[in-house]
Design brief:
Mean pLDDT: 92
Number of strands: 23
Number of domains: 1
Low-confidence stretches: 375-391
Oligomer: single chain
Helix content: under 10%
Distance between the termini: 33 Å
Number of helices: 1
Length: 395
């Protein structure tokens, strides 16, 4: 028998429906509420990804952290039963503290007391620009609503320290950047049969870009989602500057140079449009890469995925060798976060070039799920290039 007493959040005037704050308006088992942080240095040596999510209708809370350092990905994952204390963002050794909403947060991971070389970090994430909304995101498979998410995105600076494998890595504001995304809504979690939709309505192709970039005086956000023929279902190009109105930068296009024999980007050029309808070009140089399907729990991960019940007090620590891509064949069918150096009008910035391209994508010349780039570059605009499970956006 469940305890249906009020919870602490019910004291505050924040209700959106005549329900306790412990209950959602929807009964969809796939309801979620979660976040992701990317913390990375400007040389491409280290890329830390941290996230936490709750799944109220399945009673699960989980979190993860992955650190890509050298050829190794260190991962910590934790899962537990969701409690009524929704403001306590702690799962096992992983903790996120909201010190000042929308301005300052603390990211923390305890070390394993039995392994002094295990991953530990304590990082203060500070916003340099206001958070901005991403476009309302809806995906259907046939008539079934598969994903509906509301998100905001933000960029900032990070300070603190990371320790792993006997090495301490200082995190300083001038040499590291932080980006983050907060989202909630409905999206698939493990445990549900795909049924007819999975059998008969498999997407032919999916092409995704999510690109938050921090410059010293401005924040750039670019999003694009396309299907097999290049039809765009999500689109954003926004320039944010403190004290000034946000500026829309038209219909973003990307020329992506892929590593031959893969769909792994090495560099790219983003084509935007300024307020006077003039062209803006943003250069992209990939620094480090972290596949979200390895360690971080995003589809099509085979060892653990978000929202899956692991029992109470579950914690898992492991490391992955990324030197041989063939050792992780499913990683290529999941979204990958790339830390990158960006150039715009003589300015140099740093951010995340998150990309996933699966199946057919006519604008890039990819013809199916086994199609990869040839010896020449492919791009969304070049139709003369060469070209498993459908992915889901990170948070």
């Amino acid at each position: 028998m469940s305890d249906d007493r009020p919870i602490a959040l019910d004291e505050y005037p924040v209700h959106q429906a005549p329900l306790s704050m412990k209950h959602l308006v929807t009964g969809d088992r796939n309801a979620y509420d979660r976040c992701i942080f990317q913390v990375f240095d400007h040389t491409g040596r280290a890329l830390l990804i941290v996230g936490l999510g709750v799944y109220p209708n399945t009673g699960v809370i989980d979190a993860y952290a992955t650190l890509h350092l050298g050829e190794t990905l260190y991962a910590v994952r934790a899962s537990d039963a969701l409690t009524d204390d929704r403001m306590n963002l702690t799962v096992g050794p992983l903790r996120i503290t909201v010190d000042e909403p929308l301005r300052r947060l603390t990211l923390h991971c305890d070390a394993d007391p039995d392994d002094p070389g295990s991953l530990w970090y304590d990082i203060t994430w500070s916003a340099d620009f206001p958070a901005v909304w991403e476009p309302h995101h809806i995906q259907r498979r046939g008539d079934r609503l598969m994903l509906e998410g509301r998100r905001f995105v933000q960029a900032g600076s990070c300070t603190g320290s990371i320790r792993v494998a006997g090495e301490e890595i200082p995190v300083s504001a001038g040499e590291w950047t932080g980006t983050r995304d907060r989202s909630w809504g409905v999206r698939p979690i493990p445990g549900e049969e795909g049924g007819r939709a999975a059998d008969e309505l498999r997407p032919e192709g999916f092409h995704w870009l999510w690109i938050p970039v921090r410059f010293d005086d401005r924040f750039l956000m670019v999003i694009a989602q396309e299907d097999a023929v290049g039809y765009r279902t999500l689109n954003e190009a926004l320039l944010v500057r403190n004290g000034r109105r946000d500026l829309q930068l038209g219909w973003p296009r990307a020329d992506i140079t892929y590593r031959p024999g893969t769909r792994h980007p090495d560099r790219a050029v983003l084509h935007l449009t300024d307020a006077a309808r003039g062209p803006l070009e943003v250069g992209v140089e990939i620094l480090a890469s972290s596949p979200l399907a390895i360690g971080a729990g995003y589809p099509p991960a085979t060892d653990w995925q978000h929202g899956s019940w692991q029992g109470r007090g579950w914690t898992d620590r492991r490391s992955y060798d990324l030197a041989d891509p063939a050792a992780h064949p499913m990683a290529a069918f999941g979204v990958i976060d790339h830390s990158a150096r960006f150039t715009l009008d003589g300015r140099v910035g740093h951010g995340i070039f998150e990309h996933g391209s699966f199946g057919r994508h006519d604008p890039s010349g990819f013809t199916g799920y086994d199609s990869v780039a040839g010896v020449t570059s492919t791009s969304e605009e070049d139709r003369h290039g060469r070209g498993t499970t459908p992915p889901h956006h990170h948070s």
